[in-house]
Design a protein that fits this description.
The protein is an alpha+beta fold. About 35% of the residues lie in helices and about 20% in strands. The chain is built from ten helices and 21 strands. A hairpin with an 8-residue loop joins strand 17 and strand 18. The protein starts with a strand and ends in an 8-residue tail after the last helix.
């Protein structure tokens, strides 16, 4: 470890600049593409440059702002944070972009020749750097750091050969993560496409169809008195509306006792039943019950008439069409959903065989997404742990 050294960021950079003062780059300076790209705060992800929030200024005005230029290989650092993004997050300006200009709240760091840019980006996103930024950040409504504070951040730097090797390893994992995320995105498109084959009716009944209530029965549950302690914690799952969110429910935050179920006249809902949240932040969301359970009054359990409808098809029909159907019926100003509204929803029922074919395809797509999402989560955990070890020097990539 003796060859590792601790440096201020200012010692590692050929130059560090911030964006032009607000009045020097205003909305009237922007032009349609083509022009010179303006790098804005929304482009700065945590380790990744985010395309999509594209903005440009004229070539001649970019010359005026040349001091704030950014080129491929430069490291970009966010001055400003918010509820979802931390100040000090860093990424590298992509090689496939031509030179641009950084806007206010974006710092541009140009590494010295003795510093690998990818490694510098990783070091700035390391836990040690994050802690330093957290101590320095200040602001009335949003945390921010200034250029002087950024320059004083201390980073641990190995020799150039090891910098490059660490950067290569982490970059390879990042590419694998991104590739997995792209596969998930494609599978979600497949799922959406298959979902369109689930026939739904018209929510206001302008076309032929069957009301949900004609091929199912539904009921909601209750909330036992909170003043009776022994009603709670008895192990019987009790589903609340916030737990109904488009997935299979196998456990609940709260459970009830047998005496609560008995005294309150509650009925059990069997596994394999679609659930619809009627109130609260998840109103209109659909879930699939994976265990025998009870529900509160904000959750509607819908039991299919199996002579007409497959329960799993009903789940997918509600899940894929609920937003359109339920939003339409709520246009009257109804603040919450209720049993009557949901039971009047119209569906075009295919044959039972047709329903099962649709279910098989939808379940297969969802299962593939879940498998890849699990791989993605594992990759991210591995990446996080390995980055911590490599950037601290606890794990070496070059034999001393």
């Amino acid at each position: 470890m003796s060859e590792w050294r601790e440096c201020f960021l200012a010692e590692l950079a050929e130059s560090t600049v911030d964006g032009p003062f607000g009045s020097a780059l205003k909305s009237e300076h922007y032009v349609e593409d083509p022009g010179v790209r303006v790098v804005r705060l929304a482009n700065l992800g945590d380790g990744t440059y985010l395309d999509g929030d594209d903005a440009y200024i004229a070539d001649d005005y970019a010359t005026v702002l040349q001091r704030h230029a950014v080129v491929a290989g430069d490291v970009l650092v966010a001055s400003l944070g918010d509820d979802n993004h931390r100040p000090g997050r860093a990424c590298q300006y992509p090689a496939h972009h031509e030179a641009g200009i950084v806007k206010a709240d974006c710092f541009r760091v140009r590494p010295k020749n003795s510093v690998d840019g990818l490694f510098l980006k990783e070091a700035l996103n390391s836990e040690d750097a994050v802690v330093q930024v957290r101590r320095l950040a200040q602001g009335v409504t949003r945390d921010r750091i200034n250029l002087g504070q950024l320059r004083r951040i201390r980073l641990r730097m190995p020799p150039m050969e090891e910098q490059r090797r660490i950067a290569e390893i982490l970059d390879y994992i990042d590419e694998t993560i991104q590739a997995t995320a792209r596969v998930i995105a494609k599978l979600e498109l497949v799922l959406d496409g298959v979902a369109q084959s689930v026939p739904l009716g018209d929510p206001v009944g302008r076309i032929a169809g069957d009301s949900l209530g004609s091929f199912s029965s539904s009921r909601s549950g209750r909330t036992p008195s909170r003043s009776i302690d022994h009603y709670y914690g008895g192990g019987i799952p009790w589903v609340k509306s916030g737990e109904v969110a488009g997935s299979t429910i196998v456990s609940t935050a709260e459970t009830l006792s047998p005496s609560a179920v008995r005294d309150c006249g509650m009925l059990y809902v069997q596994p394999g039943t679609p659930l619809v949240a009627m109130y609260g932040a998840t109103a209109g969301k659909v879930g699939w019950l994976g265990v025998k359970a009870t529900t509160n009054q904000a959750v509607l359990a819908i039991e299919a008439d199996r002579r007409k409808a497959d329960p799993r098809w009903l789940y997918w029909a509600l899940r894929t069409g609920a937003a359109r159907l339920l939003n339409s019926v709520q246009g009257s100003g109804q603040p919450n959903l209720n049993k009557g509204i949901i039971e009047r929803l119209m569906f075009v029922l295919p044959t039972l065989d047709g329903q099962r074919v649709a279910v098989q395809r939808l379940d297969a797509a969802e299962s593939a997404i879940a498998r890849h999402a699990d791989v993605l989560a594992k990759l991210r955990r591995v990446r996080s742990g390995l980055a911590a070890d490599l950037l601290s020097g606890h794990v070496r990539t070059v034999v001393p």
